[in-house]
Every structure is written in structure tokens, then in C-alpha cells.
Amino acid sequence: MSPCTVTIDVHDTTAFIRLSGSVIHEDVPSISQQAKTLLTQGCQTVIFDFSKTDRVNSNGIAAVISTVNAASATGAVVVVHNPNDHFRVLLITTKLISVLNVSHGTDADALACAAMVRHQT
């Protein structure tokens, strides 16, 4: 398994947090701290891109949930983008699939998902 790497791309008030490798290591909690910092700096949309991940465990899920909780306090939207098959099974098993905003496809699809969620609130 390869270690988790994080790349953050910020465009206006949208942050793409692109994860690759195995999101299972101890350093994963720093991902949620980075996301919370983005929220306090005014990001209104945080998109976790899981398209290049090998594995995701409870640490990865915790980073997403922690960010969702912080985002709800600011009115921001969090999207889980392109979860791989392994992560999708975890989301279904834990029933988080029904409460998280999940998108598949291109970055534009993730942005459209966030816009739809924002329109519903």
C-alpha cells in the first residue's frame, strides 16, 4: 500500500482536496484540519477527490465526517467525489451514503453536485 498524499487546489471559494494512495495512516487526521482551515478562510465548497486512492478506512471516513460537521456550522457544502469501489462499500455498509453528498465523473460533476445541494438548502 502506498502512503496517502494530499494535493489541495483552491479556486475562489471552492477547494478540491485530492487524495491518492492509502487513506489509512495516522497522518490522515491532518486532512480534516487542513479542510477546517480552508473553511475558516472562506471556502464554501470542499470536494474530497478519492479517484486516485487505493484504500480508505475509518481514518478517511473520520476526516470527511469531521469536515462535514465543520462545514455545517458555516453553511459550506462537502462533496465526496469519485469514491473507489472499496470506499463505496464502506459508505454503503455504514449507511453514510445516505447522508453524504457523493458525485462521480469529472470535476464539473462534483461542482454540479455541490450547486444542487446548495440550491436545496
Keywords:
single chain; 121 residues; alpha/beta; Transcription Regulator spoIIAA; five-stranded mixed beta sheet; 4 helices; 5 strands
Question: What is the strand tally?
Answer: 5
CATH topology: Transcription Regulator spoIIAA
Strand-pairing-aware structural class: alpha/beta
Radius of gyration: 13 Å
Averaging pLDDT over every residue, what do you get?
Answer: 91
CATH class: Alpha Beta
Distance between the first and last residues' Cα: 39 Å
Describe the global form.
Answer: globular
Reading the helices and strands in chain order gives EEHEHEHEH
Give the DSSP E fraction (strand runs of 2 or more residues). Answer: 25-35%
Question: What's a concise summary of this model?
Answer:
This protein has helices at 29-40, 58-74, 85-93, 107-120, and strands spanning 5-11, 14-23, 45-56, 77-81, 101-103.
Could you characterize the architecture of this molecule?
There is one protein chain. The chain is an alpha/beta fold and 121 residues long. The chain has one domain (5-120): Transcription Regulator spoIIAA (2-Layer Sandwich). The chain is 43% helix and 31% strand. It is built from four helices and five strands, in the order ββαβαβαβα. It has helices spanning 29-40, 58-74, 85-93, 107-120, and strands at residues 5-11, 14-23, 45-56, 77-81, 101-103. The protein has a five-stranded mixed beta sheet, with helices on both faces. The longest helix is centred in the middle third of the chain and has 17 residues, at 58-74. The radius of gyration is 13 Å and the shape is globular.
